[in-house]
Design a protein that fits this description.
five-stranded mixed barrel; mainly beta; 6 strands; 131 residues; OB fold (Dihydrolipoamide Acetyltransferase, E2P); 1 helix; disordered N terminus
Length: 131
């Protein structure tokens, strides 16, 4: 039996790929606005969220956070993400994807994290302004 390797520490890329290609993104952050479900012309449904992720104590100058677009395509992940609300602390895992579409000015693209795993870490305090 091969001994298990300890999990990689932040910044440790020595065991990241181990001879293979990897596209794995893990984020812990705050939901910036409530998730939005959109039905595409193809009939597919995607739920989009935007996470605000702290850059950590090593961030010496602004901006101190990154805002990252994420999308949920599978029914299970869409159901999970749709229970989240603005300011909830969440964790997601997925892959970095570049999406293309035709816009009014031609082909456009953006990067986003396609979520394959998701969970709420902490529910936001109820807001008096939330309907």
């Amino acid at each position: 039996m091969t001994p298990r390797k300890p999990p990689a520490q932040p910044g440790d890329i020595s065991t990241c790929c181990e001879g293979s290609v990897a596209n794995v993104v893990r984020l812990c952050g705050r939901v910036s606005v409530d998730p939005v479900a959109t039905t595409l012309p193809s009939g597919d449904v995607v739920v989009s969220i935007r996470l605000v992720v702290d850059r950590g104590e090593k961030a010496r100058k602004p901006p101190y956070v990154d805002t990252i677009d994420c999308s949920a395509w599978t029914a299970r992940i869409r159901r999970t993400v749709l229970t989240w609300h603005e300011a909830d602390e969440v964790a997601v895992e997925g892959a970095l994807r570049r999406r293309f579409w035709r816009g009014s000015t031609g082909t456009q693209s953006r990067y986003e994290v396609e979520i394959t795993g998701a969970r709420r870490l902490e529910r936001a305090m109820p807001s008096r302004t939330r309907a």
